[in-house]
Design goal:
Elements lengths: L3 E5 L4 E4 L5 E8 L2 E3 L8 E5 L2 E4 L5 E6 L6 E7 L4 E9 L5 E10 L5 E9 L10 E6 L4 E6 L2 E9 L2 E2 L3 E6 L22 E4 L1 E11 L4 E11 L2 H14 L1 H16 L11 H16 L16 H4 L8 H13 L3 H14 L24 E2 L2 E2 L5 H18 L2 H4 L3 H14 L11 E2 L6 E4 H20 L3 H22 E2 L4 E2 L2 E4 L5 E4 L8 H4 L8 H14 L29 H14 L7 H13 L9 E2 L6 E2 L5 H21 L16
């Protein structure tokens, strides 16, 4: 089930499912520790003796408030004749999750309405040894284990604190969960439970006909009782409405960093661009890790998650955020990379949000020989993205401490990790993490990484080293022409492998990732080899259904639903087509192809603006994880590239200046 409506502040991340059930609760890192393991925090409603758990019998509309990382949710129940307007947020500064509930009585008679909110914590990702208790000194519920504390409280009927509650055991032979206690409209008041536990609270409201009542619910996250108690006092002092307003205002300011001229974009493209910026931010830890996705339903697929920092995905997202001007976020990422790079100058498969090495399926031993289990594009793209960062901001004092430990170390590795006979990199794993060899995408990124290193070393006055890096890049390009380009097919291969007997094994599968040949500078977009390759990518991989979109590669079986298509459409790969159209465009008219794709993405996003990894080729339902940070980052980058090209192409004939202002005063 896809995740929707993420809200967070870089330490605390909350996300919901399609039924508006809270399913993700990460603290103290984005993506690390998940204190729900995907189990739902339920919400139920009792009205004059009738009880209903959401979503059963409820109409649900989910979105964000305009230009802010605050949810805008409408829940409607025709049978109960009530409507609930809900807003969720995580305070921009404090580790507090807040929910505002406006409960409206749509009938002509006074109603007693009871809201039931259940907490199903699995602290540290398991339900062993948890405690749930009621703390009477501040009338709150408390879940804790070790140094993780979660304080739950409310304000309703002009009063602070919880009056109705229950704690108990869950998922045992005897007990399904304390939340079941709510279904008769009453709670037991049991004050404490240990082991595998949950809790539920009730808010009792008397609502006049055609009137509404507003109440607030919040969870303070911390590492001690004193910390969460202090956070509860912050909420009381500033008031829940004050927390709501300041967070709403913060994100309105944050999203307006560029003062971008949105009249240059169709309205729906501009809306998705802004939502993509904010959704990306929810997936980025304050320590610098840009996390791929935080959707614990992935556990059911391979008993692992996407809650890791892949240097490749993260570098491409950082590139996009730099184009949009968010250098504060990306500086944290590059500093994070400098801390985790191996002393030999490469990055391994993926990393935890805290910076430790994450799980991997790439072996250190293959065919009884030791190997470095890496995807070399991940190393190359960090350096490529860092050079693009410097080009945008010229922040030499930021770059200086990264020059030797990150830039030169990675560049030297890329120079040494080569087959000197072919000039190409040694085999590594591909960006899809499914095969090993000398890949066109990887070689393209290494070309971009070495050229970036050459620019850096030239800027720092090391001309001889800069020339060495440029020569290494030139040899890569020659190797691409000789070994990776297929003259007969008039396109680039996905991959080659050089055998011991001197033969070359060619994987000629058409793969969307060959877009890298122009994206990182190895070839110009109008090179005939590139044009022929990209045309074949479109012809063979575009999904010929009502949904459309571009598959990853021929016969892609990952989450494939329908064998009549070559693979499911991915947002990232579809946007690569738009980036190619932008790079190729010589006129404003030719840019329209790219805009058509940007509008396609907007049309196929969830109503909230969330982009999954891929979508069903027939129904457009989200598939795999959602949201995927890489999808949103690629959308941001493509919009920025479109605007750059538009201003470049559409200039005043008299003065030679762009006809439009990119930014508004």
């Amino acid at each position: 089930m896809p995740r929707d409506l993420p809200v967070g502040n870089g330490n605390l991340l909350i996300a919901f499912d399609k039924d508006y059930l809270l399913r993700e609760f990460y603290f103290p890192h984005v993506g690390e520790e998940n204190h729900t393991i995907g189990e739902p925090f339920r919400m139920g409603v009792w009205v004059n003796g009738q009880f209903s758990w959401i979503p059963h019998g409820w109409g649900i509309r989910k979105n964000y408030l305009d230009d802010s990382l605050v949810t805008d949710v409408e829940l409607f129940n025709e049978t109960l004749k009530i409507r609930i307007l809900a807003n969720d947020l995580v305070d921009f500064h404090e580790n507090v999750y807040l929910k505002k509930l406006a409960v409206e009585n749509l009938s002509d008679e006074k109603k007693e309405i009871r809201l039931f909110l259940a907490q199903d914590f699995h602290i540290f990702g398991n339900d062993i040894g948890d405690t749930a208790s009621f703390r009477p000194e501040i009338s709150c519920l408390l879940h804790y284990k070790g140094d993780r504390y979660f304080l739950v409280n409310i304000r309703a009927n002009n009063k602070w604190g919880i009056d109705y509650f229950a704690t108990g055991n869950k998922k045992t032979d005897t007990y399904e969960g304390t939340w079941k206690d709510a279904e008769d409209g009453m709670l037991s008041g049991n004050p404490i439970a240990q082991g595998s536990v949950d809790s539920v609270l009730a808010i009792h409201l008397e609502v006049e006909p055609k009137a509404k009542e507003v109440c607030y619910y919040w969870i303070c996250a911390g590492k001690s009782w004193e910390e969460v108690k202090a956070l509860n006092e912050v909420v009381k002092k500033k008031t829940p409405e004050g927390i709501f307003k300041r967070t709403f205002d913060y994100w309105r300011l944050w999203i307006d960093l560029e003062h971008l001229n949105y009249t240059l974009l169709p309205e729906k493209v501009g809306h998705l661009y802004k939502k993509s910026l904010m959704i990306c931010r929810t997936q980025i830890d304050n320590s610098g890790g840009i996390i791929a996705a935080n959707d614990s339903d992935a556990l059911h697929f391979n008993r692992d998650t996407y809650s890791y920092m892949w240097p490749r995905d993260a570098a491409l997202v950082a590139y996009a955020l730099d184009l949009a001007g968010y250098f504060g976020v990306t500086r944290n990422f590059f500093n994070f990379c400098a801390k985790i790079i191996e002393k030999e100058g490469f990055f391994l498969h993926k990393y935890n949000p805290c910076g430790t090495l994450a799980s991997s399926w790439h072996p250190w031993l293959k065919e009884k020989k030791a190997q470095i289990p890496l995807q070399e594009d991940e190393t190359a793209l960090v350096i490529w993205a860092l050079w693009n960062h410097y080009k945008n901001f010229k922040d030499i004092e930021f770059i200086k401490p990264l020059y030797k430990p990150l830039i030169k170390r990675a560049a030297d590795f890329m120079m040494n990790y080569r087959d000197m006979k072919t000039g190409l990199p040694l085999p590594s794993y591909d960006l899809w993490e499914e095969r090993q060899g000398v890949l066109t995408f990887t070689v393209s990124t290494v070309y971009g990484g070495l050229m970036a290193a050459a620019h850096f070393t030239e800027a720092f006055g090391e001309m001889e080293l800069a020339n060495d890096y440029r020569e290494g890049a030139a040899l890569l390009r020659q190797g691409m022409d000789k070994y990776l380009y297929l003259e007969k097919e008039k396109r680039f291969a996905r991959m080659v492998n050089f055998k011991k007997d001197g033969s070359i094994e060619v994987d000629a599968t058409i793969d969307a990732s060959v877009y890298g040949i122009f994206a990182f500078g190895a070839y110009s977009a109008d090179d005939e080899k590139v044009k022929s390759t990209m045309q074949q990518v479109y012809d063979r991989l575009w999904c010929k259904t009502n949904v459309g979109g571009l598959a990853r590669y021929e016969n892609d079986t990952y989450y494939r639903i329908n064998n009549e298509v070559t693979g499911n459409p991915w947002f990232v790969t579809t946007l690569w087509l738009a980036q190619y159209s932008i790079a190729l465009a010589k006129t404003k008219e030719e840019l329209k192809k790219a805009m058509t794709i940007l509008e396609w993405v907007s049309d196929h996003a969830l109503p909230s603006g969330v982009l999954a990894e891929q979508v069903h080729p027939i129904t457009n339902e989200p598939l795999s994880v959602s949201p995927l940070t890489w999808s949103h980052g690629t959308y941001i980058a493509t919009v920025q590239q479109y605007l750059n090209k538009l201003l470049e192409l559409d200039k005043c004939e008299t003065c030679g200046q762009p006809r439009y202002a990119r930014h508004l005063a």
